[in-house]
Amino acid sequence: SAVISQKPSRDICQRGTSLTIQCQVDSQVTMMFWYRQQPGQSLTLIATANQGSEATYESGFVIDKFPISRPNLTFSTLTVSNLSPEDSSIYLCSAEPARGFFGQGTRLTVV
Amino acid sequence: GDSVTQMEGPVTLSEEAFLTINCTYTATGYPSLFWYVQYPGEGLQLLLKATKADDKGSNKGFEATYRKETTSFHLEKGSVQVSDSAVYFCALIPMFSGGYNKLIFGAGTRLAVHP
Description:
B: four-stranded antiparallel beta sheet
């Protein structure tokens, strides 16, 4: 099994700034996934991060807004850039989602 | 593209009532199907899953059967408890996902159980 530590758990940020979210997995995993859950809505996949290559972004998400790093097989970061109130959401990372391994989520509020 | 459709909530039940949350999917071939649960203030948890037609996933008294003929994966529980109050998400991993195993979620159904 894999345990995923995600931080911060929540943050309040000023518009125009950026927030970097970190996820640490306690075992090596090939792929990590980043999701967004807007208020009262379902989860939408932002991108898939594979170690050693650029992340693959889903339609509607771009690297300039959501840069991702994947320096090794146990760690990944998601940055949400140039924040606006519309970015207020919960962001979750996942490894091996078919086995249910998700981080606890980061609740971002942009003011 | 592949998608998941869930019944709209909220679903409000009395304790010990029977629960059904409908889920249907659109996908090519045989996707893997999942139910996730999100309790208030907590993260996402895998509740159960099924990976091939006619499989039944079960956990904590919940069960769901993979019905290829009706492209459905309805969640059921015979007797709900107040502690089952949560948001339930149906999800799938496409059969041809290129090894990426990316989950596609339904909109979620909020369940509220009253004593």
